[in-house]
């Protein structure tokens, strides 16, 4: 289960007592309703009420944006890993190189070096937003470059393995199939539908009187070569438009062979360059997934802090907790939490939630408002968050 509930409740004598009460209440006999973890938030600068109210709305937007970048980075990494065969996604989604996202969330501690607590809340939020924006911009640049190269290779692959309508016949022909260095004659490659192959053999000599008799020969499946004078090329082109015969790009064999060589070399260079790009790209995605995820958890911490102060007041005394519901116990767990914290706001349980919705800065709907601070976190990085 990758669903977590990030909640907070006022400190009961001490925050530790609040956490112990939650642990005791979520034990259902020998079974547990949830696994519970402390979500440690340091003493941040509170600021004024106006700042908290305004910041609450902004943090909601930054939270949504940051989560989208986390998921986009993860999905991009999955795409590149499928191409490069460098392991599965779960093995590569790590924080700081070796910590799974779930473990990081469960053991969350504030990064004091990266986000000094002496800074105002607004300044911390701005730094996080700026960092995530930089990740998104670089992700677009790197992935677009990679995708363009991947698209070129796929196009070359289609030309070499697709149907004869899209495939370059240059790698199918032989030198002896063509008349070379002739001043008057040219060899054309014509694609003939299989059902019309017999019809082609009967009619090709009568298309124009400039066709060399018995010059048609099968060189690849239902592709034929034929010899005619250069002056009658337009006549043949006009004829094929009125039939199901298709003239491939006809060029002298010397150019065809050169084109084949160039395509092979071009494809080889592209493939080599793509492999060259994959390693650094995978490394960058792994590192920056971790950076974006860390930023996301700090935004969650800021949201919990701001809303807890708005709800529970000063002095700051609350305990943030990460709750992982045990499978099939969601409903029972919600009932237990309501029993524990229902007294904090009886309107949240009465069905008349309009007064709760009027609290400035909370930006909640009736469906996600509870007597306690609550945010759902879904750590399945390949699916959109379920709300």
UniProtKB/TrEMBL annotation:
Xref: Gene3D superfamilies: 3.30.70.100, subunit c (vma5p) of the yeast v-atpase, domain 2 (1.20.1460.10), Vacuolar atp synthase subunit c, domain 1 (3.30.70.1180)
UniProt-listed InterPro entries: ATPase_V1-cplx_csu, Vac_ATP_synth_c_sf
Any one GO CC term of the record: lysosomal membrane
Matches recorded under Pfam families: V-ATPase_C
A GO molecular-function annotation: proton-transporting ATPase activity, rotational mechanism
Sequence similarity: Belongs to the V-ATPase C subunit family.
Its job: Subunit of the V1 complex of vacuolar(H+)-ATPase (V-ATPase), a multisubunit enzyme composed of a peripheral complex (V1) that hydrolyzes ATP and a membrane integral complex (V0) that translocates protons. V-ATPase is responsible for acidifying and maintaining the pH of intracellular compartments and in some cell types, is targeted to the plasma membrane, where it is responsible for acidifying the extracellular environment. Subunit C is necessary for the assembly of the catalytic sector of the enzyme and is likely to have a specific function in its catalytic activity.
Subunit-structure text: V-ATPase is a heteromultimeric enzyme made up of two complexes: the ATP-hydrolytic V1 complex and the proton translocation V0 complex. The V1 complex consists of three catalytic AB heterodimers that form a heterohexamer, three peripheral stalks each consisting of EG heterodimers, one central rotor including subunits D and F, and the regulatory subunits C and H. The proton translocation complex V0 consists of the proton transport subunit a, a ring of proteolipid subunits c9c'', rotary subunit d, subunits e and f, and two accessory subunits.
Protein name in the entry: V-type proton ATPase subunit C
């Amino acid at each position: 289960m990758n669903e977590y509930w990030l909640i907070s409740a006022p400190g009961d004598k001490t925050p530790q007592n609040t956490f112990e009460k939650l642990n005791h209440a979520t034990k259902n006999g020998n079974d547990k309703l949830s696994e519970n973890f402390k979500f440690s938030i340091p003493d941040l600068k509170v600021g004024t009420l106006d700042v908290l109210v305004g910041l609450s709305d902004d943090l909601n937007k930054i939270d949504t944006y940051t989560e989208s970048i986390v998921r986009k980075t993860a999905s991009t990494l999955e795409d590149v890993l499928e191409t490069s065969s460098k392991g599965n996604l779960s093995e590569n989604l790590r924080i700081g190189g070796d910590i799974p996202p779930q473990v990081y969330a469960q053991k969350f501690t504030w990064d004091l070096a990266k986000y000094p607590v002496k800074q105002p809340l607004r300044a911390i939020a701005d730094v996080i937003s700026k960092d995530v924006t930089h990740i998104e911009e670089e992700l677009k640049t790197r992935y677009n470059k990679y995708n363009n190269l991947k698209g070129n290779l796929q196009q070359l692959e289609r030309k070499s393995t697709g149907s004869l309508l899209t495939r370059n016949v240059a790698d199918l022909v032989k030198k002896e199939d063509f008349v070379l260095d002739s001043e008057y004659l040219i060899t054309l490659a014509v694609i003939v539908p299989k059902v019309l192959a017999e019809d082609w053999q009967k009619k090709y000599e009568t298309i124009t009187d400039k066709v060399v008799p018995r010059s048609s020969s099968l060189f690849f499946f239902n592709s034929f070569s034929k010899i005619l004078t250069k002056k009658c090329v337009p006549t043949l082109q006009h004829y094929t438009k009125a039939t199901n015969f298709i003239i491939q790009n006809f060029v002298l064999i010397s150019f065809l062979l050169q084109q084949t060589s160039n395509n092979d070399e071009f494809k080889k260079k592209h493939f080599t360059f793509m492999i060259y790009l994959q390693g650094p790209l995978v490394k960058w995605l792994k590192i920056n997934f971790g950076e974006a995820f860390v930023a996301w958890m700090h935004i969650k911490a800021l949201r919990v802090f701001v809303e807890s102060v708005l709800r529970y007041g000063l002095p700051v005394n609350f305990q943030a907790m990460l709750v992982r519901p045990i499978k099939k116990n969601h409903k029972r767990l919600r009932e237990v939490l309501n029993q524990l914290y229902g007294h904090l706001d009886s309107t949240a349980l009465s069905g008349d939630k309009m007064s709760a919705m009027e609290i400035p800065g909370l930006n909640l709907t009736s469906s996600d408002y509870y007597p306690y601070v609550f945010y759902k976190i879904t750590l399945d990085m390949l699916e959109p968050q379920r709300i």
